[in-house]
């Protein structure tokens, strides 16, 4: 089973490279972020024509998340992160696909820091951490995938000394990420490539992609039962060089077939009903 995450930086403006990548890479599940489109502008017609069912949580001009599943329809289990009923940002959506709970997230950028946007980012991280703990307690297979807007270590940023005061790399944000992982999650890309510099984002400016001046912002956190099935992980780096490309490249993991006893998809659906902010 191949699961991918891709910040498309505008789903309609990047639809051509997105469809090309879907055809070439053929992921089974895809988490999309930064749709930059309201719900009624999500290109469901061409997505379905490409062979994918989809659920999405859009927002005009900004944010937006979606989950695609090849040859099937994702079963929505949550829309919006709990903990703040006044938060109107479209940053989290969740579905059950092939017995796995897939959480697709787009964590706030937080710049400029310090400031209100940074405070919102830290609060959102706290809400995610609390909710992630509740998912682990369920004992079901879970993947939390998306753009976390954090470089966890110096290995995840091309020149760490230049990013010390940035909201993507400030100590508070890295501490929050490590606290989340410490609940029992596995950082899949780092687990498969413990000592490599792996980037998922290259800015449009100053020839960042050509210089490989990148950042690792897109992550997969796996619950223990899913981590046991992890066999490969990587980044489709070449997609960043395509015409009309996003500033992110798709990242992906491959899982072996499930074996042994596990909770069923119907159990996941009963324990995680559809809810909205």
Automatic annotation (TrEMBL):
InterPro entries: AP_endonuc_1 (IPR004808), AP_endonuclease_F1_BS (IPR020847), AP_endonuclease_F1_CS (IPR020848), Endo/exonu/phosph_ase_sf (IPR036691), Endo/exonuclease/phosphatase (IPR005135), ExoIII-like (IPR037493). The active site is at residues 106, 147, 248. Its cofactor is Mn(2+); Mg(2+). Mg(2+) binds at residues 7, 34, 147, 149, 247-248. Probably binds two magnesium or manganese ions per subunit. Signal peptide: none annotated. The record marks 149 as: Transition state stabilizer. This is Exodeoxyribonuclease III. It comes from Pseudorhodoplanes sinuspersici.
């Amino acid at each position: 089973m191949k699961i991918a995450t891709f910040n498309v930086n505008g789903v309609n403006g990047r639809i051509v490279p997105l469809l090309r990548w879907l055809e070439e890479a053929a992921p089974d599940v895809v988490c999309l972020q930064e749709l930059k489109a309201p719900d009624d502008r999500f290109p469901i017609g061409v997505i379905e024509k490409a062979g994918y069912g989809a659920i999405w949580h859009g927002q005009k001009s900004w944010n937006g998340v979606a989950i695609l599943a090849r040859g099937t329809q994702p079963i929505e289990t949550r829309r919006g992160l709990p903990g703040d009923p006044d938060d109107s940002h479209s940053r989290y959506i969740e579905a059950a696909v092939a017995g796995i709970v897939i959480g697709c997230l787009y964590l706030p950028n937080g710049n400029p820091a310090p400031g209100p946007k940074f405070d919102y980012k830290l609060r959102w991280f706290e809400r995610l951490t609390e909710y992630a703990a509740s998912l682990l307690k369920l004992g079901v297979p879970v993947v939390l995938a998306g753009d976390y807007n954090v470089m966890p270590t110096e290995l995840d940023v091309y020149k760490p000394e230049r990013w010390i005061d940035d909201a993507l790399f400030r100590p508070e944000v890295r501490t929050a990420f490590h606290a989340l992982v410490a609940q029992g999650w596995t950082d899949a890309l780092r687990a498969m490539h413990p000592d490599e510099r792996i980037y998922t984002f290259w800015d449009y400016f100053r020839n960042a992609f050509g210089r490989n001046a990148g950042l690792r912002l897109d992550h997969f956190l796996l619950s223990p039962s899913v981590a046991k099935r992890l066999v490969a992980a990587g980044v489709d780096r070449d997609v960043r060089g395509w015409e009309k490309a996003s500033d992110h490249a798709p990242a992906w993991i491959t899982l072996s077939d499930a074996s042994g006893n596990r909770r069923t998809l119907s159990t996941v659906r009963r324990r995680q009903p559809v809810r909205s902010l």
